[in-house]
Automatic annotation (TrEMBL):
InterPro entries: GCL_type2/YbdK_subfam, GCS2, Gln_synth/guanido_kin_cat_dom, YbdK. This is Putative glutamate--cysteine ligase 2. It comes from Phytohabitans aurantiacus. The keyword Ligase applies. It catalyses: L-cysteine + L-glutamate + ATP = gamma-L-glutamyl-L-cysteine + ADP + phosphate + H(+). ATP-dependent carboxylate-amine ligase which exhibits weak glutamate--cysteine ligase activity. Its EC number is 6.3.2.2. Belongs to the glutamate--cysteine ligase type 2 family. YbdK subfamily. The keyword Zinc-finger does not apply. Keywords: ATP-binding, Ligase, Nucleotide-binding.
Length: 370
């Protein structure tokens, strides 16, 4: 497994995002990163992405995530900025100008105003699979659980100093793009490529590498890629997403080995599940994608853990997942903590809460909760 984390670059005083990606990526890439780790640009010049190498257990993943966060935070500090772990900007933009990279500039041209203020940041998890036909079959199995992963991850309640009422405003912004949400139920990779090709031909995505689906076969790696979660404010929450994602893939592979294909999820019910997860996180109802009705989101988390229990136990991850979930239950989601910080001391406190720090108080590894 591996994880890609997208972050915002911000002015430490105002909290406004700042267009320093080119400088920060160059400086962070020159740091002493673990083998296979990378730092790269994202759609906006106010964003950076730190990617781990291939990890085989939670301890290795945790070390990679911490190293990537240290590198981008130290690089940003050299240019007078901080790195903020939020799915959307808490305060206004200080200059989310059109990207200087050709592909991103083409995306800006295609979508117009939709991407002008799109500084959304996600936590993407890759889990290895044998081949791309298998990846498509696995994605079919994942569909009913992806809204629950979103509900666990919500970390973008604010947009330009307004409380949106949503746990994940990032997902609301993403829903404005064609082909967002759950991927269509497809029989194999040839059908998947044909579906993407139709979207390209219709002029609504830039190329085969650009989709907004929450899970997909990676266009460049032998993995299933989860793209549902908001950027995690802490390493713990990123690890939780990765362990649950890997367990879901292993559970799907076990089902497929017994000849059990997934049933399609009705598109409108799937959309309702995504909306509820983005709106409420864990603090309200979710939609059960087997029963097609609302149930408490916390019940869906319990059902998810039960569904992947054997896979978690087999990997030795069950005790850690239970401990990490207990932390979410006691401390709340990232969105919950952002709102608490805002209520105590306004938006500057939210930016402080989300700024990557180490145990000495310098910018570095995790959110302030750790």
């Amino acid at each position: 497994m591996g994880v890609e984390e997208e972050f915002l670059l911000a002015d430490p005083g105002s909290g406004a995002t700042v267009p320093l990606a080119e400088k920060v990526v160059a400086r962070a890439s020159a740091a002493d990163l673990p083998v296979g780790a990378t730092v790269q640009r994202e759609l906006r010049d106010t964003q950076v992405e730190a990617a781990t190498g291939v990890c085989r257990d939670a301890a290795e993943l945790r070390a990679y995530l911490a190293a990537g966060r240290r590198a981008v935070a130290a690089a940003a500090r050299d240019y007078g900025a901080v790195v903020v772990a939020s799915g959307s900007p808490v305060r206004g933009s200080g200059g989310a100008a059109p990207s200087s990279l050709a592909r991103f500039a083409a995306i800006d041209e295609m979508y117009g105003e939709v991407t002008r203020d799109y500084e959304a940041c996600g936590c993407h998890v890759h889990v290895g699979v044998a081949d791309r036909d298998t990846a498509v079959a696995v994605v079919n199995h994942l569909a009913r659980w992806l809204p629950t992963l979103l509900a666990l991850s919500v970390n973008s309640p604010f947009h330009r100093e307004r409380d949106t009422g949503y746990g994940s405003w990032r997902i609301v912004q993403q829903s404005r793009f064609p082909g967002s949400g759950l991927a269509p139920h497809l029989p194999d990779y040839a059908a998947y490529r044909a579906e993407i090709g139709r979207l390209v031909e219709c002029g609504v995505v830039a190329d085969e590498a650009q989709t907004f689906w929450f899970a997909r076969p990676s266009p460049r790696l032998p993995t299933v890629e989860f793209r549902v979660a908001d950027t995690a404010s802490t390493v713990d929450e990123a690890v939780l997403q990765a362990l649950l994602a890997r367990a879901l893939v292993r559970t799907a592979l076990a089902e497929l080995s017994r000849g059990r294909e997934a049933d399609p999820v009705p598109a409108q019910v799937a959309a309702a599940a995504v909306w509820n997860a983005a709106r409420y996180g864990l603090a309200g109802p979710g939609v059960h994608l087997g029963l097609y009705r609302r149930v408490p989101a916390t019940d869906l988390v319990a059902a998810l853990v039960e569904h992947v229990r054997d896979a978690l136990a087999g990997a030795g991850d069950l005790p850690e997942v239970h401990a990490l979930l207990d932390r979410v239950r006691s401390g709340g989601t990232g969105a919950d903590r952002q709102r608490r910080a805002a209520g105590l001391d306004g938006f500057p406190a939210v930016v402080t809460e989300l700024t990557l720090r180490d145990e000495t108080g310098a910018v570095g590894v995790t959110g302030s909760r750790d």
